[in-house]
Each structure stands twice: as C-alpha cells, then as structure tokens.
Design a protein that fits this description.
The complex is a heterotrimer of chains A (about 290), B (about 325) and C (about 475).
Chain A: E1 28-32, E2 38-43, H1 47-66, H2 69-85, H3 87-97, H4 102-117, H5 123-127, E3 129-130, E4 137-145, E5 148-152, H6 160-171, E6 175-179, H7 186-196, E7 205-208, H8 212-221, E8 227-229, H9 236-246, E9 252-254, H10 269-272, E10 275-283
Parallel strand pairs in A: 5-6, 5-8, 6-7, 8-9
Antiparallel strand pairs in A: 1-2, 3-4, 4-10
Helix pairs in contact in A: 1-8, 2-4, 3-4, 4-6, 8-9
Chain B: H1 4-7, H2 10-15, H3 20-28, H4 35-45, H5 52-64, E1 66-69, H6 77-88, E2 102-105, H7 110-117, E3 123-127, H8 138-150, E4 155-159, H9 162-166, H10 170-183, E5 188-192, H11 195-198, H12 201-213, E6 218-220, H13 232-249, E7 254-256, H14 264-277, E8 290-292, H15 295-308
Parallel strand pairs in B: 1-2, 1-8, 2-3, 3-4, 4-5, 5-6, 6-7
Chain C: E1 23-25, E2 28-30, E3 36-41, E4 48-54, H1 57-75, H2 80-96, H3 98-109, H4 113-134, E5 150-154, H5 160-173, E6 177-181, H6 188-199, E7 207-209, H7 214-221, E8 228-232, H8 235-245, E9 251-255, E10 261-264, H9 270-282, E11 294-298, H10 302-313, H11 334-349, E12 353-355, E13 371-374, H12 381-384, E14 391-397, H13 400-408, E15 415-419, H14 423-432, E16 437-440, E17 459-460
Parallel strand pairs in C: 5-6, 5-8, 6-7, 8-9, 10-11, 10-15, 11-14, 13-14, 15-16
Antiparallel strand pairs in C: 1-2, 3-4, 9-17, 12-13
The chains are: A alpha/beta (about 290), B alpha/beta (about 325), C alpha/beta (about 475).
C-alpha cells in the first residue's frame, strides 16, 4: 500500500503590527469546515489584543496617510497580484468556509481589490472641489483619511465580504483593525499572510479572530479609534449599543447593511465614510 | 524685500549688527528657501554617478576631510588614544592611505588627544560651550572654551545658542559667538547650528549668516546628538550661504556636515554637492570637513575594493 | 583641485535594436503594403540605428481597419474591468522593462539617460496605472461612458514614449482603439511598446503603430475611418488638422506649441528660482512645449538673478546622453539644430546680448550650448517664436500687472511659472495668467493625475487627470 503524505496543518494566529502573535489571553476556539469537521484552533482574541491592534494601527497612520496616493495604489495592486498567485489556496479555504461557488467568489474578491486599488489617486478628484466662493479667495476642498477605523467584517462572506469592507478603508490612507467573521475566520488570516509579504507597512491592517460581542465593544468605545464599520454586526441590539458607545468620541459610523449581494459593484460610500473634507482658504492679491 | 545677501557691501554688513532690531530686519530679509525646491536640487545631485578615478580621488579626499569623532560620556583615555592612532594611520596595511583632518573630543579628553597627536599635523578639535545643549551660563561656556584651548585644542566646535535664536534674540546669540571666538584666541572656530532644532531651511540660512557675521571659521550642521543631523539639503543651504557670504565680504567660511554620514556613497554625495554649489575652491580639508566616526571604515573598505577589485569586510578594518 | 567626474556610461547592451522594423498592425509586425523604408539615427553620434517604414496609404488603411474591427468586435464590448486589467498589465510590463526602454529612448531621442530613467519612464508607467484605474470607473468621471471609436494619434519626438502613454492610456481606458504614429525621428520606443502589447496579450488591433513622417501623419488624421484625432506637435500643423476635420464627425484635441513666461519676483526664493529657470528651459534640451522660454524677472533683482543664473549654467554638463552625469543631451535632429541656430542668429541681429557658458561640444552629433539672451523685448522674434531648444530670452518688468500683461502677450497659452514667497500673489497672478498650466515655485512638474493642455493657440483639450478622459468619451 502506498503511504500517503502526512500534511502539516497551519496555525492560525492574529495579525497585529505586521507580526503574527497568538492572543495574549492564550485562548483559542475551534473552527470547523462546512461539513462540521475540525479545521483549526483559531486564536480567540481578547480586549488586550484589541488594545494592541489599535496602538499598532495608530502608529501606522503617519506613514500610510503620508504616502502618495500613487504609492498606496501601487501597494494595493501588488497585493492583488499576490492574491492571484495564491488563488488556489484561497479557493480551497473559501470552499471549506462557506457555501457557494468558491472559484467565482475568490475571483470576485481579487477583482474587487483591484477595483479599489485604482481609486487611490482618483477619489480626491471625485470628492474634492475647487469652490467658487464670492470673494477674492482661493478655496479648495480635499478629502483626508480619518485615521484608525475599526471594522466588523461580514459574518457570512469570509473573503469577498472582507475585501469589500477592508480595501475601501485603507486605499484612502486610513488604517484598520478588523474583526474577522467569527465562524469563518481562516480566509481572513490567509489574507493577512499576503499582506505581511506585500509592501503594506506594518500596522496598516490588523486582524483579530474571535467573538464579536466580546471584542466589538472595546473597539467601539476606544477613544483612539476614529471610525467604526458595523457591517458585520447581525444583532440589532448589539449594533445599537455599539453605535452608542462610539458616540463618546463621535466616531464616523457605517451601520449594518443587512443582507448584501457582495458581488455587485459597490459605490464610493465605503471610502467616503472615512474621509474628512478639509477646505482651505487663501486670499488672492498682489 | 531686497536680497541683502548679494546687495550689501562689507561696510553696510558691519552695521547690521548695530542694533537688535536692525539685525532682525537683516536676517528676516534674507531670501527664503523653498523646501521642496531645495530638497529636489539635493536629490538630483545625489544621482551623480562617481566612478573609478573620480571615486578613488573622492575617497582619499574624504578621508583627509574626516574629523574623527568620539563624544560619549563613556570616553576614556584608552578610547581616545585608540582613536588618535586610527586617525594617524587609518589603514595599518597601507602607508599611502592619508590621515584624517582632525580628532574631535570633549574638553576633558583634550590632554590625552594632544599627547597622542604630537607631531602628526592632525588638528585637535574640542567641542565646547556646554556641548551639546549650550544651556549654561556664558561664563561657564567661555571657561569651557579657554580650558580646551589651553589643553591643546587648535579648533573649537561651539554650539549656537538655540534658545536665543529661536526666541528671536539674534543679537545675543551673535554676541556670544563673538565672545567665544575671542576666548578661543587663535583656535579656529566652528559654530554648530544644530539644524535639526532649527527646523526650517529659512532658519538655517539665517543662523548661518549670523554665525559667519560673528566670525565663525566654519559652520557645522549638528552635534550628532539630535535627529535629524546632517542632510544633503541642509548642507546645500549652508553651502549657498557661504558662497553668498564670500561674494559679499570676500571671507571664506568652511562647512562641516556632522552626524548620520555613514557610507562612502554619502560622503561622495556631499563632495558632489560642494563641487556643484560652491566649486572646487571648497574641496579642501581646511574648508570642508565630515564629522563622523563609522564613515572612516566604510571609506577604507571602498578604497580597498577600488585598489584590489574585491569586496572587503569588517575583519579587514580596525575597530577602535 | 577640480573634481572631474569619470565617465559613467549606462550600458546600451540592454537594448536589442533590430536592423529593420515593420509596422505593428492587428497585433503583429508586418511588412508594409505600399510604404517605403527610411533610416532613424542616433542624434548624439549620427550613427544609423535602424530602418523603419514610412507607412503609405494602404498601410494606413489596413491599420485603421484593424482598429475598427478590434473596436467593434472586441474592445467596445469588454467590461471596464477587463480593459483595466490589460492596462495594468501594460503598466507592469513598462516597469519591468523600464531600464531597457529608457536606454532606447536616450539613444533614439538624444535626451540624457538620467532624465529618461528618472523622469520619462516613471511617468510613462504611472500614466498607464492611473488610466487603468479609470477604465471601470467611467461613471464617476462625469463625461459619460460611451467611447468614440477609433482614435488617430500623432505624437512628437520630444518625449516619445511619454507622449505615447498620454495618448494611448486614456483612449483605451475609455474603450477606444488606436492607430498611433510616432515621430519620424523617434520611432523605436513605440515599436518596443508594441512588443509589450504582445506580451500583455492585448487583443490584436486595439493598438496599432504606424511609423512615418508628415505624410503618414496626414493620411492618418484625414482618414475617413477615424472618429477621433489627437495631435501633439507644432501649432502650424495643428491648424492644418483643425481645418481638415472641419465638417466631419471627428472629435479633435490638440497640444501645440508654447512660449511660456517664467516670472520671478523680487521676493522669490532665489536659489530655487534659479534652479527652476534652468529646469524650465534646459531640461530636455529645451525640447519642451511648456518650456519656460521667456524669463520675466523683476527689474530690481534682475542683475542678481542673472549673475546666479550664469553661475548655475556654468555647471551644466552637455554631452553623451548615455553618461549618467549628463544634464543636457543632443538636439534631436539636424533640422531642429538648424532652426535653433538660425533663430539664435536672429536674436543677436535684433540686438539682444547672447551668452553661453564655455562648453566643449562633441564633434559628431547635434549639439547646442545652453544660451541666454538678455536685453530682449516683446517685439523681438526670439520673444515671440518658439525656438524649441536650450535658449532663454530674458525680459524685465516692474510691477505685477506688467508681468501679467507681458506673460499673456502671446498667441500661445500653454504654461507659465511664478516665483515669489507670497502666497496671495501666486494665486492672484495664477488667476490672471492665460495659460493651461501654472507652476508656482516649481516648473516642469508632471503627474498623471494633473491635467495638462493649453489656451489659445497652444491647443485645446487636456491630457492627464479626470479631465483627460473627456476627449475620448462621447
């Protein structure tokens, strides 16, 4: 009888500050594939992991927001190239995580990433304006990233939904702390492996796996987080509570979207939500 | 606003320090520096490709321009003696390798250095005036200077009073430099502007003029204790200032970038900057110096590569 | 002791120049049907580089037909996403082969390798990246989403590959197909670009490259089968094209000549202003439509600025384009050199004072030392006519109003420069300048996101930015 090769199972860790730590709590939880079989022990993140992730995201803001739009676009496009190279791996992981046509889903996720990459150096032209004020003044409105954005990823769409909420946040210069889909976290972790080997600076994306009701309140209440995306919060009461918490420092909020066809081409709302418009005046006179 | 740099005669320049208000008006009337333009000019010059004979020439010149420096609380006579030996004979395997321009130490280490440098022709530079911060009473700073010179230093690297400068007390900062120059007697005076704390190129230009009018023989970028230290654009602005100063007064002042210059590539970029901003008149150790420590070993490694064709390694240069 | 830079040559061995090229039609290199071959030379040495084709009427027909078929059968119906992917591939290929393209550009055009490597090629790649991203976002651009069809594009010799990028990238992003004619003296990087189209597996006929001279260009822009004409070149030819499309359905954009004023006020940051003046007229040997060819300096600082300028000019290194330390390369052709010389002669005859730094020019090849004329007035021909060479005319002014008046006193209106530390003055002057691009405290800055184009006889339409899509959409 030919012996079959023993595979080497992957360890799935958190992604914070460009590194892959386990949860400081030491906890893990079981992730199963669609058929109920054991797939992995994912790290079960704690509030301290949230704290560390926010600190990493904040530290990354000056470099990322200070990069040229072209540079951000180049980095995101490179990530798409890497995703494409790992297509087979993602297909396998998505197929094990969720029902549906995994190859189409992965293709859509990669294409979605490319779509957003191309926005880096155009969003300012679409949302900014030179304003014709009634006086001898130059007046220009330009969008700037808000800073650190906490994101609760869609629970049912482990890669395409994730990409659809993450790419728009970072392409404009924000940094992110993402709570992965709790029951389907593995494609998200593999995504972070791609990010870690790309030119994306450490801390721009941080990803935690764990329980939304446990982790989200710490993000929502954190005063050094500027924006909150509640897309993945399915419990309306929890969503309301989180929005209330977030009001403490007036975070910019995206409320849960309800059932979403993630394959449809998005608009620009997810980028605009975390952009501040800065308007500058300057007199014109010799 | 007139461009005072080019437009005033020597006599007129002497009068600008007649009053605090007059001096302020003069300094604030100097042409501004566009940050982006200055940085782009420096970056373009950094693309010059210096190869073969030009590179060999540049490396030897750079070695001869090094102020080999140790400025640590942990400095001891042993450390300083080793540094001096290195400065005298940077490459034990090659007697043709030139010596450095100077050794630069704290005042307490001057006696040791003076002893070790006897007969070498290498200058002995001492930092003074409560280096690096300069935050001490004036009598202390003057005593610091006198003591260093008495112990054998023939060059003094003093610090600009940034507190005075940044609060607009330009004449006070000027008077201090004049006093230190006088206290130093025949010693050459370098004035450290600490460009990292001055923060804008406009300030660097003003501080350079202030120091030169006060009698500096050299203007120096940094103490090396504050980041950013020397950069190409800041050195560019200082070179433009010494160029304009000579055009106005006929007096030649030297420039010393210090801190953060680690590789031969860096050093050659500075030489290109000098060459294309003020010309080869300043390409001499009595008009341009590098304040450095690790730079010397990289120069030696590159020198060896050019001579032998092989990449060398840390085992082949001495650590002091 | 002088610091002599040793020769630092970029090796030409990275480039493989064929002895003879065909036309690139329908995705393949083909022999001409009725075109004749002619030679292209290296302007720094006058050596022959290769033979290329001057496409004849049947060749142009074939190319336009290929573009039409590709448009109707393939390109028009592709999703924006897929057009984007092709453009991203081209952008990446350009980056991958950037050094090779830069060396070839310098050999064929005469421009210094430092410029082609550090300025031209990065901008070329960036242009393709930028427009790739628009291909699937046209609904946000504000100009509709319907392409025009087949675009005839004729480009000049001063930035061959960059001008190709400025033309092809937006056209393809918007869904058009193209037939492009590179300049007669600089066909080679366009032909190498055609190879990149093959490597990108671009559908055949989407991009067609037909080489040739003025006659080929005329055949192309006058061809009844094209829907759009885009031309960059002289105002004289631009006028002829505008006449030829009259009464047709063809849309037209033109990017023509200029005689830009570079205005220096008494409070300018002098060292950077001098750098900007030098960059404005000596960058790319002055072969720049938006060159700052008229220096308007405030009279109170004129002497000081000129002294600084002359001192700076003495540092310019003229020589072998492939030497990495060269600042000013070869003039592109004997014809252009002759034009520069004759206009400079006229300048002297008209009474302006001519000055060049001492300059050792090589024996073979086409060379011209950087030159300034002082004592120039608006009435002089060298203040009015585009020289398109490293020649600067210097005029003075007293007040801001006078500066604006003189700056605008030209049929051209492509660009202008303003140098002053006073922000409100920059904005007030920029408001009043009749020029499509105003550079304040900088000059000759380009970016794919920044629209470029002229007022008045410098042409119409914009290239670059969101506005650059307008000329390719219905």
């Amino acid at each position: 009888m030919p012996e079959s090769r023993l595979r080497i199972p992957k360890t799935y860790k958190l992604f914070i500050g460009g590194a892959f730590p386990r949860s400081e709590s030491g906890r893990s939880y079981v992730v199963t594939s669609l058929d109920g079989a054991f797939r992995a022990n994912a790290a079960l993140a704690s509030r301290k992991d949230v704290r560390d992730a926010v600190a990493a995201a904040r530290a990354a803001v000056p470099t990322w927001a200070g990069a040229t739009a072209y540079n951000r676009g180049q980095i995101l496009y490179r990530i798409a190239e890497l995703l494409e190279g790992r297509r087979a791996q993602f297909v396998e992981e998505v197929a094990a995580s969720e029902p549906g046509d995994a190859p189409s889903t992965v293709d859509a996720a990669i294409d979605r990433w490319v779509w957003y990459a191309g926005w880096a150096d155009k969003i300012a032209q679409v949302t900014g304006a030179a304003n014709p004020v009634a006086g001898p003044f130059f007046n220009l409105s330009s969008p700037e990233p808000a800073g650190v954005v906490g994101i609760v990823a869609p629970p049912d769409s482990s890669l395409l939904g994730l990409v659809s909420v993450l790419a728009p946040v970072i392409v404009t210069g924000n940094t992110a702390v993402v709570l992965a889909a709790p029951d389907r976290p593995l494609p998200a972790v593999t995504l972070t492996e791609v990010l870690a080997t790309s030119d994306l600076p450490a801390g721009v994306v941080n990803l935690l796996t764990g329980r939304t009701p446990e982790l989200a309140p710490w993000l929502a209440g954190h005063l050094d987080v500027n924006g909150l995306d509640l897309t993945g919060v399915t419990d309306p009461e929890l969503a309301t509570a989180l929005e209330r918490d977030a009001a403490e420092n007036l975070k910019r909020i995206l409320r849960p979207a309800g059932p979403t066809d993630w394959t449809a081409e998005p608009g620009i709302e997810r980028m605009v939500a975390y952009l501040e418009i800065k308007t500058v005046w300057h007199p014109k006179g010799v | 606003m007139t461009n005072a740099a080019g437009g005033l005669s020597v006599v007129e320049l002497a009068s600008v320090t007649g009053s605090a208000a007059g001096f302020r008006a003069f300094l604030h009337g100097l042409p501004g520096v566009d940050q982006v333009g200055a940085e782009q000019r420096a970056a373009m010059l950094a693309t010059r490709s210096i190869k073969t004979t030009a590179k060999a020439w540049g490396i030897d010149l750079a070695i001869r321009m090094v102020d080999l420096t140790t400025l640590e609380g942990a400095d001891t006579p042993g450390k300083v003696r080793a540094l001096c030996a290195k400065g005298r004979r940077p490459d034990p395997a090659d007697p043709d390798c030139p010596s450095v321009a100077a050794i630069c130490v704290y005042p307490a280490m001057v006696p040791t250095a003076a002893e070790s440098l006897k007969g070498s022709g290498i200058h002995l530079a001492s930092v003074a005036t409560a280096f690096p911060s300069g935050q001490a009473p004036l009598p202390v700073k003057l005593a610091d200077t006198r003591a260093a010179v008495a112990a054998g230093a023939d060059e003094i690297d003093m610090v600009l009073n940034r507190g005075d400068f940044l609060s607009g007390r330009y004449l006070a900062a000027f008077d201090e430099i004049v006093a230190v120059k006088e206290a130093g007697g025949d010693a050459h005076l370098k004035v450290i502007l600490e460009t990292g704390e001055l923060a804008t190129y406009d300030n660097v230009r003003r501080a350079a003029w202030l120091a030169m009018l006060a009698g500096a023989d050299f203007i120096k970028t940094s103490t090396g204790k504050v980041s950013p230290a020397a950069t190409l654009p800041v050195t560019l602005v200082m070179l433009e200032a010494v160029r304009d100063f000579r055009a106005s007064t006929g007096r030649t002042v030297g420039v010393k970038p210090a801190g953060g210059i680690r590789t031969t590539k860096d050093a050659l970029r500075y030489l290109v900057l000098v060459n294309e901003t003020v010309g080869d008149d300043w390409l001499r150790p009595d008009r341009f110096r590098f304040g450095a420590s690790t730079l010397l070993n990289d120069l030696l490694l590159q020198r060896s590569k050019l001579a032998t064709g092989r990449y060398s390694g840390p085992d082949y240069v001495t650590l002091d | 002791m002088p610091f002599e830079y040793a020769p630092a040559p970029e090796s030409p061995s990275i480039v493989d120049i064929q002895s003879s090229y065909g036309l690139f039609v329908n995705g393949e290199f083909t022999d001409p049907i009725d075109g004749e071959r002619f030679k292209t030379i290296n302007p720094a040495s006058e050596d022959v580089l290769a033979e290329v084709v001057a496409a004849g009427p049947a060749d142009v027909d074939a190319a336009v037909a290929a573009a039409r078929r590709a448009y109707e059968n393939v390109w028009r119906d592709l999703t924006g996403r897929d057009r984007a992917k092709y453009l991203y591939r081209l952008a990446r290929l350009i980056q991958e082969r950037a050094r090779e393209l830069a060396v070839l550009e310098s050999i064929d055009n005469g421009k210094p390798i430092r410029e082609s490597r550090d300025v031209d090629l990065p901008l070329v790649a960036a242009h393709f990246f930028y427009y790739a991203g628009w291909a699937d976002k046209l609904r946000y651009a504000g100009f509709g989403e319907t392409p025009l069809g087949v675009a005839a594009q004729v480009i000049p010799w001063n930035f061959p590959l960059l001008m190709l990028a400025w033309k092809i990238a937006p056209a393809l992003a918007a869904g058009n197909t193209v037939v492009l004619k590179p300049a007669e003296t600089t066909p080679l990087t366009a032909l190498l670009f055609a190879q990149l189209c093959q490597q990108a597996e671009l559908p055949p006929g989407v991009v067609n490259i037909v080489t040739g001279a003025g006659e080929t260009g005329r055949l192309l822009v006058e061809h009844p089968g094209v829907d759009k004409v885009a031309f960059t070149g002289s105002t004289e030819v631009g006028r002829a094209i505008a006449r030829s499309v009259a009464g047709t359905r063809k849309r037209l954009t033109l990017e023509l000549g200029g005689k830009a004023a570079n205005i220096v006020f008494d409070d300018a940051p002098i060292d950077q202003a001098v750098e900007g003046i030098v960059n404005g007229i000596f960058f790319n040997q002055g072969h720049v439509c938006c060159a700052g060819s008229r220096l308007l300096v405030q009279e109170s600082v004129a002497e000081e600025v000129l002294d600084s300028l002359k001192r700076r000019m003495a540092r310019l290194r003229v020589g072998d384009p492939l030497d990495k330390n060269t600042d000013i390369g070869a003039i592109n052709s004997a014809a252009q050199l002759s034009r520069i010389r004759s206009l400079s002669e006229i300048g002297s005859q008209e009474g302006a004072q001519r000055w060049s730094p001492p300059c050792e020019l090589p024996e073979r090849g086409f060379w011209f030392a950087p030159t300034i004329f002082t004592g120039v007035s608006q009435a002089h021909r060298i203040a009015r006519e585009e020289i398109f060479g490293p020649v600067l005319s210097v005029l003075t002014f007293r007040t801001p109003a006078e500066a604006v008046e003189k700056a605008n006193n030209t049929p051209y209106g492509l660009s202008a420069g303003v140098w002053t530390e006073k922000g409100s003055r920059i904005l007030a002057i920029a408001d009043r300048l009749r020029a499509g691009v105003v550079w304040a405290n900088t000059f000759n800055r380009f970016d794919p996101t920044s629209p470029f184009g002229g007022y008045k006889e410098s042409g119409y339409g914009r290239e670059g930015g969101r506005h650059g899509l307008e000329g390719y959409l219905a």
